[in-house]
């Protein structure tokens, strides 16, 4: 059975537009989805990222976060005939508040994968309590003390680690020091679940709002890495991926290092399969 990837919307978050794309419309509030990804068709289903713990975490910082009944993990898993206990592996692209918030709902029998570098960074306190919350970070550390409850990836950019056949992780960096990409071998090419190295496909990659050079992405304004680190992470993802799946925007179809198609309905359709080029609408070349 071929591997499939289903984007699942676990919440909607409001942010300042310029916090997503550098210098874009400061003061304008935009709503973005908080996506997880369900990988099916392999020897075991895999969940990539688990969304946010609750809306109250954001209220303290004056941010709006919404979760409807159709945005729960239970709802999304049920659309594929699965329950929480059926998830054997969770893989985190990184440990920010909107990526690891519901991991503690899963039993210790579920192995949670994260890069060792990312867990170290989360526990360091360098980014403050909004990005890496106490509850989320403590839960990941608690998993260190139960056999098999956590897997620490030591990818450093020179090699990948396999999760199940056809699914591997590699260090992407760019967003945080320990950010990883989840690479899925599909019938049509490599799919890259890339976390937050890109927020807005159109304004960063299709029509970059700051950059004039060919194939030059516009950077985000929310990262712990250098400008060059983020650009390199994006360019590497574009160089060897057929499908690019960011955590806060609709999937993109890639050809020749450029975005040639979008799957805009994937976010609202729990059954959507992001691994078929026929499901993407072509974008105008620029």
List the helices and strands and how they pair.
Layout: E1 4-16, H1 17-20, E2 29-40, E3 46-48, H2 56-59, E4 65-66, H3 73-78, E5 89-91, E6 111-115, H4 116-124, H5 128-131, H6 134-143, E7 150-153, E8 161-164, E9 167-171, E10 180-186, E11 189-195, H7 201-206, H8 227-240, E12 243-246, E13 252-255, E14 258-262, E15 281-282
Parallel strand pairs: 3-5, 5-6, 6-7, 11-12
Antiparallel strand pairs: 1-2, 1-4, 2-3, 8-9, 9-10, 10-11, 12-13, 13-14, 14-15
Can you describe what's shown?
The protein has 286 residues and is an alpha+beta fold. It has a single domain, classed as 4-Layer Sandwich (Metallo-beta-lactamase, Chain A), CATH 3.60.15.10. Helix content is 20%, strand content 28%. It has 8 helices and 15 strands. The chain has helices spanning 17-20, 56-59, 73-78, 116-124, 128-131, 134-143, 201-206, 227-240, and strands spanning 4-16, 29-40, 46-48, 65-66, 89-91, 111-115, 150-153, 161-164, 167-171, 180-186, 189-195, 243-246, 252-255, 258-262, 281-282. The strands form 2 sheets. It has an 8-stranded mixed beta sheet. The chain has a 7-stranded mixed beta sheet with strand order 4-1-2-3-5-6-7. It starts with a strand and ends with a strand.
């Amino acid at each position: 059975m071929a591997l499939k990837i289903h984007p699942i919307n676990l919440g909607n978050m409001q942010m300042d537009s310029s916090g997503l794309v550098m210098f874009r419309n400061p003061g304008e509030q935009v709503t973005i989805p908080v996506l997880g990804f369900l990988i099916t068709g392999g020897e075991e289903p895999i969940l990539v990222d688990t969304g946010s713990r609750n809306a109250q975490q954001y209220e303290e910082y004056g941010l709006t976060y919404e979760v409807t009944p159709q945005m729960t993990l239970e709802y999304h898993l049920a659309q594929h005939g699965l329950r929480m206990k059926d998830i054997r592996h969770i893989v985190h692209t990184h440990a920010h508040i909107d990526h690891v918030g519901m991991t503690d709902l899963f039993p210790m029998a579920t192995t949670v994968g994260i890069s060792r570098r990312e867990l170290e960074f989360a526990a360091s306190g360098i980014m403050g309590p909004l990005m890496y919350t106490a509850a989320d970070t403590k839960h990941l550390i608690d998993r260190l003390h139960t056999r098999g409850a956590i897997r620490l990836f030591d990818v450093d950019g020179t090699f990948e680690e396999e999760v199940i056949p056809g699914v591997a992780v590699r260090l992407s960096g760019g967003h945080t020091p320990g950010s990883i990409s989840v690479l899925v071998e599909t019938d049509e090419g490599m799919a890259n679940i890339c976390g937050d190295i890109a927020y807005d496909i159109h304004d960063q990659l299709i029509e970059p709002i700051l950059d004039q050079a060919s194939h030059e992405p516009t950077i985000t304004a929310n990262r712990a890495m250098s400008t060059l680190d983020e650009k390199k992470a994006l360019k590497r993802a574009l160089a060897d991926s057929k499908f690019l799946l960011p955590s806060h925007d609709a999937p993109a179809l890639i050809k020749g290092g450029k975005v040639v198609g979008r799957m805009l309905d994937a976010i609202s359709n729990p059954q959507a399969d992001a691994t078929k080029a026929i499901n993407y609408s072509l974008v105008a070349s620029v």
